[in-house]
Amino acid sequence: MGVVGFLLVTTLTVFMVLPNGTSSVSGVFWSDWSATEYGPLGPADVDALIKVRQAGLWEIPVGQQAADRAQSSRVREVGATIADDHALMDEQVRDVAARLDVRLPSTPGEDQQHWMDELTGLSGAEWDRVFADRLRAAHGNVLTVLAEVRAGTRNELVRSFCQHAILMVLRHITLLESTGLVDYGALPEPRPPERRPEP
Questions:
Q1: pLDDT score of 55
Q2: pLDDT grade, residue 31 (50/70/90)?
Q3: Can you spell out the DSSP letters for the chain?
Q4: Confidence label for 30 from pLDDT (cuts 50, 70 and 90)
Q5: Are 31 and 20 in contact (CB under 8 A)?
Q6: CB within 8 A of 144, min separation 6: which ones?
Q7: CA 75 vs CA 86, 129, 177: distances in Å
Q8: Residues near 123 by Cβ (< 8 Å), separated by ≥ 6?
Q9: What is the pLDDT of residues 166-195, one digit of tens each?
């Protein structure tokens, strides 16, 4: 009776500690990973693909709007370039996702939809300013995701995709800053040294 009770308690403990499968030392549940011909595909890899797809879903139409309705000629140029670049990147991310069997969203995220709605109600110089600020902040956010995945992914295809995407995001950041409209004080501060990993 004691042995049966011990086995029952042990079994319940294992299921409580490992609800999703076997865990690595770092706490990653291996059931969240999948094997592909390009190497293991993890949750961070999938998240990076999703974030690039969602970036395109709002930055393509907003970039096209900028090309048509921005007051500043520089904002119109930057918007057109961003829209064109993201259209190409969207094709690439959908191709990569198909090869890795990753399901991508078909709508922007909640914040992205809010930014699109916000821009719809603006015009003139205010439209230009909000366009530059929202897109610059968004590109900064996705850059950190892509850089982290590029640095540590085990998947060859994701590594190559992130490399290309990082270059495009850096280009867009530079273009947006060239408008002279970015409010740097509103951007998130870099993490202090004590919260950064050792190089």
A1: 97
A2: low
A3: -HHHHHHHHHHHHHHHH-TTS-B-TTS-BGGG-B--TTS-B-HHHHHHHHHHHHHHHHHHHHHHHHHHH-SSHHHHHHHHHHHHHHHHHHHHHHHHHHHHT-PPPSS--HHHHHHHHHHHT--HHHHHHHHHHHHHHHHHHHHHHHHHHHHH---HHHHHHHHHHHHHHHHHHHHHHTTT---GGGSPPPPPGGGSPP-
A4: low
A5: yes
A6: none
A7: 16, 9, 10
A8: 69
A9: 999 999 999 999 999 999 999 999 888 887
Structure tokens at 165: 């995407």
* Residue 175 to residue 177: CA distance in whole angstroms: 5
Amino acid identity, residue 179? T
